[in-house]
Write a structure and sequence with these properties.
It is built from 13 helices and 19 strands. By secondary structure, it is an alpha+beta fold. A seven-stranded antiparallel sheet has the order 2-1-7-6-5-3-4. It has a five-stranded antiparallel sheet with strand order 9-8-12-11-10.
């Protein structure tokens, strides 16, 4: 075993002390010669002084050797103590010691244990076998005491600790003997096995279900210590995943393995955030994080066949018709009554009301009209969810030009500078994409209405995280980013209806359309400095 630097320094110090003692004794020998023989040399000593040099020399050697031995044993003892402390720090479980009568004299929790573990100690002096008994598989009273009385090694023993509820532990022990060979007690470890058995059960269940999965599933593990890094290795494949990936599924590098996936799935995976789902072609993709006790361990990729749009429409057609009928008739009927009687009151009795009374009636009529607009928007939003996608090439640049021409014709007096990047062609549903572009460009036009000069831009840019991203930017009113999470909610508005009219459904419709295309939308803005809406398409 390697010797620590402290022990090496101690040994060097002990050697130096031993040499110093030997030198001192040698000097004493020389002085003794001089005193015994005067000017004569040591070889001329005779009589009772003849043995003095040999005696002094032997005493010097014996004293130096004794000192060296004691210092060496001291260094070895310190080394053994350090080794014992290091092993105790590496032991996973409680460390305990007993005396020859099996009374507990030491009980130490494992490193990293919570503070409560240090206060939950066995009282010193109590018998170990009164707190634990052998479970084989049922508790066996007296069995632990019999094993302890045998003074033999206990390699691994499942025991039950008395308590409410009783807990299961795994106990190991080694007998200890004193210098006379007498039994001096046990030293051992004990660790709870409930969590370990739960992990074994979870692993067994996973292995049993793994072969029964009817979808491609891939387990990914980070290649390095950072679970958010770009490099991943394939840790496991379900049978369906192995069949889908073919020979490439035998490799470990995920960058190479995913090349066997369908092209639209590969493109969506590059832009899919962890923990979200997305539809890509014929597949629905789920990328789920794997973690344990707050530590990120990897990712789980699920690929499920997307439901056929025609079948989905057929299944939900009855529910959709029922919803549309309820909104169109059941909700509009009382609204028509309120609006009708308010108009009658305004026309027939308005002359008998003062200015405040007529203002109240105008507010009722305006609220009814706004409610009608919100119902229309809600119906349009529900139809977006059920309308099947008809994918084909769509020129977003040309579509944006048509929308801008309509906006200019509605307010020809406005001074506007609108820039549209040409040649932005995507693959999607033309009708739905037109609705999305009308909402985005219409919002940019509307929220720039209070500016002297309207500036709107539609362009495309490349981003490292999202790839190809489309941008609709303006220099209008903008909004506070603290409330950006409300921006795409239904009926959520960040501006007063007095400043800008609207129902609060437009951006919710845009997000639903883009997500049905496998993309997403987000925004950046600052109050008074315009807004930028970024969106992607799968």
């Amino acid at each position: 075993m390697p010797v620590s630097p402290q022990v090496r320094r101690l040994r060097g110090r002990s050697l130096a002390v031993s040499l110093a003692v030997a030198a001192l004794l040698a000097a004493t020998l020389a002085v003794g010669w001089q005193l015994a023989g005067g000017t004569a040399g040591p070889s001329e000593l005779s009589g009772p002084w003849s043995w003095l040099p040999m005696l002094v020399f032997g005493a010097a050697c014996a004293a130096a050797g004794l000192l060296w031995g004691r210092l060496e044993r001291h260094a070895q003892l310190r080394q053994a103590t350090q080794n014992q402390q290091a092993l105790a720090e590496l032991t996973e479980g409680w460390i305990w010691r007993t005396d020859a009568q099996h009374r507990v004299v030491g009980w130490r929790p494992p490193p990293g244990a919570p503070a409560t573990a240090w206060t939950e100690q066995l009282p010193t002096g109590q018998l170990l076998h009164t707190h634990f008994e052998v479970a084989d598989p049922r508790p066996s009273p007296g069995a632990l005491l019999a094993r302890l009385d045998a003074h033999a090694m206990i390699p691994a023993l499942r025991v039950v600790r008395h308590g409410t509820p009783p807990t299961h532990w795994r106990l190991r022990a080694l007998p200890q003997y004193d210098v006379r060979g007498q039994f001096a007690g046990y030293v051992g470890t004990i660790a709870p096995v409930d969590a370990e058995e739960q992990r074994r059960l979870d692993q067994s269940v996973l292995q049993r279900l793994w072969a029964e999965l009817d979808m491609p599933v891939v387990i990914l593990r980070p290649r390095g210590a950072d679970a958010s890094g770009p490099d991943w290795d394939v840790q496991g494949l379900s049978p369906d995943a192995a069949r889908l990936l073919g020979p490439k599924g035998q490799q470990k590098d995920w960058q190479l393995v995913q090349q066997a996936l369908p092209g639209d799935v590969q493109a969506s995976l590059r832009k899919l955030p962890e923990g979200e789902s997305r539809v890509a072609g014929d597949w629905k993709i789920d990328l789920l994080p794997l973690s344990c006790e707050g530590e990120a361990l990897g990712r789980l990729l699920l690929l499920r066949p997307a439901q056929d749009p025609a079948a989905e429409t057929a299944v939900s057609a009855a529910d959709q018709d029922s919803f549309v009928y309820s909104v169109s008739h059941d909700l509009r009927a009382p609204l028509r009554v309120v609006d009708g009687f308010a108009r009658i009151l305004k026309e027939d009795y308005g002359r008998f009301l003062d200015r405040i009374g007529n203002d109240h009636l105008d507010r009722v009529l305006a609220a009814g009209a706004r409610m009608n607009s919100m119902i229309d928007a809600l119906l349009a939003l529900s139809r977006l969810q059920s309308q099947p996608l008809a994918r084909k090439p769509v020129d977003l640049s040309q579509l944006a030009s048509y929308i801008v021409e309509d906006l200019r014709s509605q307010a020809p007096e406005r001074q506007a500078s609108i820039t549209i990047e040409p040649g932005l062609v995507v693959h999607g549903d033309p009708t739905l994409l037109r609705i999305a572009m009308e909402n985005l460009l219409g919002n940019a036009w509307k929220y720039s209405g209070q500016c002297e000069h309207t500036v709107i831009e539609f362009r495309c840019e490349q981003q490292a995280e999202h790839g190809r991203v489309f941008v609709v930017a303006d220099q209008g009113a903008g909004f506070d980013m603290r409330f950006a999470d409300r921006l795409f909610g239904v009926f959520q508005r960040l501006h007063s209806p007095k400043d800008f009219q609207g129902t609060g459904v437009g951006l919710a419709s845009v997000r639903r359309i883009l997500r049905r295309h496998g993309g997403d939308i987000w925004a950046e803005s600052e109050v008074g400095k315009g807004a930028r809406f970024y969106f992607t398409l799968g």
